[in-house]
Give the backbone structure.
Amino acid sequence: MVYELPDLPYAYDALEPTIDARIMELHHSAHHQGYVDGANAALDELERMRESGDFEGIKHVKRDLSFNLSGHVNHSIFWENMSPDGGGEPSGELAAAIDEEFGSVDAFRSEFGEAAKAVESNGWAWLFYEPVGDRLVVGQVESQNRLAHQGAIPLLGLDVWEHAYYLQYENERGEYVDSWWDVVDWDDVAARYDDARTEE
Ligand code: MN
């Protein structure tokens, strides 16, 4: 298997009361596992196509790979973006970059939160580092991969698929989005920002 489900860096109940243990358990062990399995299955199917020389249906395999691999990457970052010791404010160069791009951390939280609440159906809000312009961008990604920003490096993501909150928040996505800041691990986001800029 090329792709494997990573362990969570904390227990399933560690993010309570912000996110229930049962949500975390299903989200990690069933949903994230599904993206991992889907990505591996797409690679297997592609290998069969290469061996047979018959690429009938390749469009669907490539779509499956994009969706499932994106789901795997998104969730792998999402888990690390959160911590039971999260919350508070960003600091250092990340905070300076947020101030420069959005005006203030509060203004960033507003834009990111509104983007998350306004995702049509299932998707994500993301803070990206966009290397061409050397700047931060808030993106609204539909599903796992649509409206992705080519070349941009994901720093902080919020999953607003219903599987991420419905058992606890029911139809109140906005409450979930507003509560989520209490578990954001800004140290992880800052480390990703530093790594992204170092790669330039
Ligand atoms: Mn999810």
Summary: Residues 21-52 form the longest helix (32 residues). The first strand starts at residue 123 and ends at 130. The two ends are 31 Å apart (CA to CA). The pocket of manganese (II) ion is lined by residues 27, 31, 75, 159, 161, 163-164 (CB under 6 Å).
